[in-house]
Amino acid sequence: DTEVTQTPKHLVMGMTNKKSLKCEQHMGHRAMYWYKQKAKKPPELMFVYSYEKLSINESVPSRFSPECPNSSLLNLHLHALQPEDSALYLCASSQESGQSFNYGYTFGSGTRLTVV
Amino acid sequence: GDSVTQMEGPVTLSEEAFLTINCTYTATGYPSLFWYVQYPGEGLQLLLKATKADDKGSNKGFEATYRKETTSFHLEKGSVQVSDSAVYFCALSGFYNQGGKLIFGQGTELSVKP
Predict the structure, then answer these.
(1) What is the rounded CA–CA span in Å between residue B48 and residue B111?
(2) Sign (positive/negative) of CA torsion B16, B58, A46, A90?
(3) B39-82: per-residue pLDDT in tens?
(4) Which of A46, A3, A54, A50 has the alpha carbon at shortest distance from A24?
(5) What pLDDT score was predicted for residue B41?
(6) How far away is chain A from the Cα of B35, in angstroms, using its nearest Cα?
(7) Which of A42, A50, A102 sits opposite B99 (nearest CB)?
(8) What is the pLDDT of residues B15-37, one digit of tens each?
(9) Quick count: other Cβ atoms within 10 Å of Cβ A16?
(10) In angstroms, rounded to a whole number, what is the distance separating the alpha carbons of residues A12 and A104?
(11) Which of B51, B106, B109 sits opposite A102 (nearest CB)?
């Protein structure tokens, strides 16, 4: 299995809703990442988990809450989002966060989020 | 800090034309360099990579050579197809970057017409 699987593929939520995005990989990668991408722009790093511990938070608002229950799963909990948070949310993984410079990342297909 | 600069798009070519997308970088030390491709409505796929100077990455007819003297990693393809229409991102990952995170260029949109 050489994939990163993200669910759901599309999500529409209201500004008062609570929802979660899910990411799963079975490649034995020990680093997992959340990125946010606006249309035709490069992905922007949000969070990095290394060995199931949060190692980087790129000053993301608290309405985004990441969770790494085990080495294969990564969640992003969403609460009280704003319309400007509408974007493609990408999950990625790499063998180790310090080794990504050799191997790069494997990205999922993303969740397209619309906040109404 | 580390950065990547790509040529601006969109780039429009006819099928079978030669493609070059320029990418230059600024980095501390000796980064690894990557090209990612994003087809419409999809995530990013690793297209090719090079981890040291003078390495040539290649995949699906695309090539890029890591040129340390010009700090460049230009993407080339000899004959593009309509199916190559996508956004292409140049990226670097430096050993000295915190967490080894990827630094992306702005992306170049390629449109290939029949």
Answers:
(1) 20
(2) positive
(3) 988 899 999 999 889 999 999 999 999 999 999 999 999 999 99
(4) A3
(5) 85
(6) 10
(7) A50
(8) 999 999 999 999 887 888 999 99
(9) 8
(10) 31
(11) B51
Are B106 and A109 a contacting pair at CB < 8 A? no
Contacts of A108 (CB under 8 A, 6+ apart): A3, A4, A5, A6, A23, A90, A91, A92, B43
Q: What is residue B109's DSSP assignment?
A: E
Q: Across the A/B interface, how many CB contacts are shorter than 8 Å?
A: 75
Buried b / exposed e along A25-54 (16+ C-beta atoms within 10 A): beeebbbbbbbbbeeeebbebbbbbbebee
A97 interfaces chain B, CB cutoff of 8 Å: yes
CA B56 from chain centre, in angstroms, equals 12
Q: What is the mean pLDDT of residues B6-14?
A: 93
